[in-house]
Each structure stands twice: as C-alpha cells, then as structure tokens.
C-alpha cells in the first residue's frame, strides 16, 4: 500500500478535505493510505509524529497557497523534508496549486519546478477561471495522483520480484527450518509432506518439483488466509461503521463544536465526515454572526472618535418617505432606502471648528460677538465644511462627510424610530427649535419682522439646550441652517433612491441647506423644508453638522 502524506496550511482545510475526498476511492481499493495532521492522536508529540510520517511516506502532496508559504512549519519543516526525500529518490513530492502564488513560489526553494511534480498541469490553480468548475481541477489532480501511485507500485513490485527470485534459490532445508523457527507449522508441515510424497513415489525430490508443490500449498493457504482476511475486514468494517454511526448520533444530539471536532478526530475518514465539516462551518458562521451582532451599534448609541471631536449618534438604516406636499421643492414624495450611518449629535461648535483652524493655520470665522465655545459655528462656506470633514477623517482614520440630503432628513425625522413629527423631535416648535420668536431676550409673536429681531437681540444658542428627537439628535430644527453635500435641484424628480448625495445635474454652484435657523419662521424648521445657497456664501445663520460612514469605511 502506498503511503501518502498531505502537507498544508490549516487555512486551506477545505481544499485539503476536497482532495482527500477525491482520493478516497484509491484508499478504499487498498492502493493507498493517507495521512495529514488531522490524524494526530490525542496526547501525541505532534512534531515527532509528523516528521516520522513524512520520513516514511511514499508520496508527499504539498498544497501550495499564500497561506501555506506564510506558515513557518510548512515552509521550514514539511517542504524541506519533502524536497530532500524527493531528490534522494526516497519519495515523490508533488506540489498542488490551490490558489495563485506562482510569483511568490519563485522566491522560495519550491520555485524550482524541475525538482518535483506540479499539479494541476499548466500551472492553473484550483480557483483559476481556467476551470469551468473546481471539480474539473480536482479530477485532474486525482488522475495524476493515480498515475503516480501506479508508478510507485510498479517500482515496488520490481523490488519485490527481485527479492522473490533471490528466495527461490534458497535451499529447501533452509526454508523449512525458517518456517519452523517462525512457528509457521502449517506451511512447514505442508512442505515436508509434499517432499515425502514425492520421495515415496520414487521421484528425487528435486528443487523444481518441491517448489512446485510448495507453491501449490502456499497458494492454498493464501486463498484460505485471503478469505479469512476478507471476513475479518468485513467484520471490522461493520464494527467501524456501527461505531461511526453511534459517534455521529452523539455529535448530532449535542450539536456542539467540541462534539463535531471529536468525531472528526476519531473518524478522520468517517461516513459523516462531510456533514461534520459543514456543521463546524455553520457553527463558525453562527459565532461570527453573533459576534458581529454583539458589536453592531444600536439606534441612538453614541461615540466619539477623538477627544475634542464631534459626538456621533448611530442611525440604523431603513426606508422612509422623503419630501412633503407643502412646497413644490419638496415634491414628489418618494421612497428612499438609507444605509446605516453615524450623524453628529449637534451642529459643529466653535470649539470643534476652532481646533481645526488652529491645526491648519486657517483663519477662524467670526462669531458676531455671540460667543464661541459650544455655540454652533457660523459664517462658514460649503467648502469650509468639506475641508473640516477631510481633516477629521485624516485625524481619526474614519470616513467623515457632509450628510446627504436624504441622510439629513431621515435622521431629522427620527430614522426607524420616527413618530412622524413635523419638527425634529416634536410638533411643538418651541420645545425643539430656536427660531425668530424664541431666540431673543423675550418671546415674540406675530408677523416676522427684522427690526424686531434686531431689537430683541435674537441670535444662535449653545447646542443641546432644546429637546432631542427620537434618535437623541439636537438642533435638527432651528438654531442654524446646515449645509448638505447635494447640489441644489428644484424638486425631487430623478433623485437617488439609495440615500446617496445628488451630485449630478441641478445647480452645481449651489448646495442644499436644511433645518431652519434662529432668525426665521417656524415653518422653515420643518423636517421636510429645504432651501439653497451659493457654496461661496457665508451666513451668520448657517453652520453644518457631519456624518460618518459605519466602520469608518
């Protein structure tokens, strides 16, 4: 029986099992025995056992991939032993390309393909598009390995024939004595009886005659032994299958990772091996999904990427009806699917923006003598806001951007937690927004009047003083207008439905503003209201807030 050793990286386990599956017919036919490190017995000195199996193998399959070349044990132990034995004529080493790594191989001792076989032929890896299906690649590998097994067996048969011919020249007495010493009484007795019979019949017990009779007796004993062996093997096979089924039932009942791993260790060529491997894959996928779910942020969860940076609120993605029938620019109402993202809890403050200016030697915007600190930054161009996002991205490694108009409205409405309010956080504008009637020294009412706004000292207010919306976002209605990334379009005809910024067409020199401000009517603070301004304009009523991609991508 030809002994096959498979050397591979644990990250290529699936490929290894597929190759073993294809070679199983040779194993069942008794042509080969296959060993890899999954066959290690518990408590064994694994390095010693692996080296022993390598030194005794007739055929060594080296499964080649970037992960195999990255494995210290594969590169420094298994591959060198395989090549040494191949060059010495003690074994045949075969490289099997699993995944593209030919360029990497050229820089290793394995790069000299003249020293050993390389499969599949023509250097196409198993995952190469050259193959219509991976099964074709595996079938090619099986055919080539089958040829090599026959080649090794032919060489072995030649050596055995030579030894048999040497034995044929041995003296009959030596043969009988040897059989007796080995306590092989039946063979010895048969040989002696054949000699005596020939003697009694008057024939000289010539070597030729005795050998012929001995061959007959030996063949008879072999036939009986073969029958006994087959009976024994059948019994053992049935016992193995019974034990295999019992072990699998236990593994299925517990449905635990350790149980499936034990089954694979105990029955490395078991009937249910494939099912066990699939079960382990499913368990691993479940663990990964559970882990991802555990770390996935929840609606309204907050975080900050760096000290002094903006506090961000997680907005879980979903679908919503964008727009309204109150103004032509808000039509048509249309369905938008917005992916998850992070939104600034507040508009960017002077503290946050001033840090950016100081870091870049940029002139700080005027505050109209209303104060800086936690006051929302004002008097910033659209491009200023974009530069702040770029700076923040470079500082944190995350991807910050001006929110798209769809992201802004989805967040202002409360995302998937929306209760359908007119303003961001409620239907009572005074509870959620700073606008012209409540942003001064006293409450005003009536018709909007700029003189009254000035006399009442109306102005911006520190962020976070009004009630939040459903997601925990402040000042989405009122206080300051907020730049969005989108170019201005007169309405929503042809607008993106995936939540992305609408950057093509429209008025490219103008950008969208959202949210209303401290100096205007409450109707402009509606979550659906939209207006525009030249990107090069600075407003004492205009600022911005930032959005961030999930995971920083």
Radius of gyration: 41 Å
Neighbour order of strands in the largest sheet: 2-1-3-4-5
Largest beta sheet, briefly?
A: 5 strands, parallel
- Report the strand count: 16
Strand content: 5-15%
Number of domains: 3
- Helix share, percent: 40-55%
- Under the CATH scheme, the architecture of the largest domain is Alpha-Beta Complex
Q: What name is given to the CATH topology of the largest domain?
A: paralog of FGE (formylglycine-generating enzyme)
- Alpha-carbon distance between the termini? 55 Å
Individual helix count? 16
How would you sum up the global shape? elongated
How would you name the CATH homologous superfamily of the largest domain? paralog of FGE (formylglycine-generating enzyme)
Classify the secondary structure makeup into a structural class: alpha/beta
Mean pLDDT: 87
> Which regions contain 5 or more consecutive residues with pLDDT less than 50?
162-170, 201-205
What is the name of the CATH class of the largest domain? Alpha Beta
Please tell me about this protein's structure.
The strands form four sheets. The protein has a five-stranded parallel β-sheet with strand order 2-1-3-4-5, with helices on both faces. It is elongated and about 135 Å long. Residues 162-170 and 201-205 have low confidence and may be disordered. With 553 residues, it is of the alpha/beta class. The protein folds into three domains: 1-169, Toll/interleukin-1 receptor homology (TIR) domain (Rossmann fold), CATH 3.40.50; 170-292, no CATH class; 302-552, paralog of FGE (formylglycine-generating enzyme), CATH 3.90.1580.10. It has helices at residues 13-28, 46-56, 66-70, 72-87, 102-105, 134-168, 172-181, 185-200, 207-254, 257-266, 273-295, 350-360, 382-396, 405-412, 429-432, 450-455; strands at 2-7, 32-35, 59-64, 92-97, 117-119, 302-303, 312-315, 318-322, 334-338, 341-344, 400-401, 481-488, 507-514, 530-534, 542-543, 547-549. It is 43% helix and 13% strand.
